[in-house]
Amino acid sequence: MGTEGRWSALNRKELDPDSSPQAAFGARLRRSRESHGWTQDDLATRMKYSSTHISSVETGRKLPTLRFSRSADLALGITETTDTFEREWREMRFGSLLEGFPQFVDHEAHAAEIRLYEVGVIPGLLQTPEYAALLAEGAVKRGAITTEQARERVAVVAERQAALVRTPPPLVLAVLDESCIRRPVGEPAVMKAQFTRLVEFAALPNTVLHIAPFDMGVIRPFDLPIYVLTMPDRSLMSYAESAHRGHLERDSTFVLPMLTAYHQLQAEALSQAASVAMIEQLRKGIP
């Protein structure tokens, strides 16, 4: 048995695929490599990584990245399948997030136009770090997620916001149900800073902000959060979610009616000036 063979045998004894998602990823990578009859050097050459890097991922000592996962899919010829390493990486990276949301975030980072409607909470793209952290901490206290998953959620919020700082910036149109700004999260200072963030957002040249007041009643077209993206090639996609799952839709047959409903929502919501005035009142502590 050669050096690599002895090393692989040792790793097989040491590595428990059930110990963590990272270990399971590594074990699967090793099985896939060996099924092709490749050494770690062979796979490293095909993926343009070092054999040491391959070994570290296979044994769970190094976390895989999105680039690494895509390179593995390409090398192993599974890029167009439903069981890719990229998908496994996303499940590992975004395990506490709703189905479809990680894929949506990828598209959002490249969209030319982003339309969103949110209910109950300030949307992630507009949250301050303190507001985002308190929401995550609340989920931990309810037992809905772990502390590690809470950190992950806050990191995703920061990553989404950072992805919007690009040239040219996307057009972002946000309609917030009045409940978003009426629901207190944390101490008054947290909400005051959050209101300031909303006012600053509305003042940007590439944004529009509306509040959908409670008295819209039955003319409100959406009861749940909705996002509609216009991509650089003008294709459309939407993302909608309930409490337990999300759905990314790319078929324009279903997306176009949502876009129409969104335009109707904007028409019935408060103007940006009136919306900012309402937020300013709350920032000053006026009910």
Give structural notes.
This protein is of the alpha/beta class. The protein folds into two domains: 3-93, Orthogonal Bundle (434 Repressor (Amino-terminal Domain)); 101-283, 2-Layer Sandwich (Endonuclease, Chain A). 52% of the residues lie in helices and 12% in strands. A six-stranded mixed beta sheet has the order 3-2-1-4-5-6, with helices on both faces. Helix 2 (21-35) runs antiparallel to helix 6 (85-93), helix 8 (129-141) runs antiparallel to helix 9 (147-163) and helix 11 runs antiparallel to helix 13 (272-283). The longest helix has 17 residues, at 147-163. The radius of gyration is 23 Å and the shape is elongated. The chain starts with a helix and ends with a helix. Mean pLDDT is 87; it is low at 1-13.
Using the coordinates shown, work out and report the CATH topology of the largest domain: Endonuclease, Chain A
Using the alpha-carbon principal axes, give the shape.
elongated
- Report the C-alpha radius of gyration, rounded: 23 Å
What structural class do you assign from the helix and strand content?
alpha/beta
Helix share of residues? 40-55%
Judging by the overall fold, what is the CATH architecture of the largest domain? Answer: 2-Layer Sandwich
What percentage of amino acids are in beta strands?
5-15%
Order of helices and strands: HHHHHHHEHHEHHEEEEHH
For this structure, what is the CATH class of the largest domain? Alpha Beta
Number of domains: 2
Mean pLDDT: 87
Number of strands: 6
Low-pLDDT regions: 1-13
Profile the largest sheet. 6 strands, mixed
